[in-house]
Amino acid sequence: MQNKPITFQFISEPSDVNYGGNVHGGSVMKWIDQAGYACATTWSGNYSVTVYVGGIRFYDPIKIGEVVKVDAQVIYTGTSSMHIAINVFSRNLKQPNFEKKTHCIIVFVAVDENGKKLPVPKWIPETEEEKQQEIYAKRLMELRTQIEDEMKPFL
Ligand SMILES: CC(=O)SCCNC(=O)CCNC(=O)[C@H](O)C(C)(C)COP(=O)(O)OP(=O)(O)OC[C@H]1O[C@@H](n2cnc3c(N)ncnc32)[C@H](O)[C@@H]1OP(=O)(O)O
């Protein structure tokens, strides 16, 4: 099965502004969820919901009126889960090159019409880069288990 990245491109709008005049982190998180949703639903062929998003790092501000590019690609699949790498870039309209502004991993689960999880097609990495990405996703899963154990007393 083909595992093509899903890419969104658009211009950040005045309605995306935060209190400091740049793009609001909440807008970036919405774009991450939308691109992840499109990628997961395309991969699974079923409606998919977010189960986890974490480790979002905002490297640099995105300015209003810049071109924003959001790339989403499946890097690991479990039984019902799809681990998707998201990279967000932006560029001034007058500049040709994009700069990376945000990266995270978002996990989706395919569900049926009753909200019950469904199996997803298996992604089998082939290239060295794809294999490294799968190792990265699995490593993050282990770290997440440790973080969730730390959080349990406070939930
Ligand atoms: C598009 C949107 O905005 S959706 C809005 C926000 N999201 C939602 O409302 C989803 C709410 N959550 C749910 O409905 C439920 O958690 C479900 C239906 C998705 C899954 O429920 P359950 O069947 O109890 O989940 P279960 O614990 O078996 O986990 C399902 C999968 O999620 C994975 N998962 C669960 N927690 C995590 C986590 N913290 N990080 C990564 N993956 C996780 C599991 O490993 C499992 O993957 P696998 O099947 O590939 O092994």
From TrEMBL:
It comes from Chryseobacterium metallicongregator. Belongs to the acyl coenzyme A hydrolase family. GO terms for molecular function: fatty acyl-CoA hydrolase activity. Residues 2-114 form the HotDog ACOT-type domain. CDD domains: BFIT_BACH (cd03442). Pfam families: 4HBT. Gene3D superfamilies: Hotdog Thioesterase. Keywords: Hydrolase. Its EC number is 3.1.2.20. The keyword Hydrolase applies. This is Acyl-CoA thioesterase.
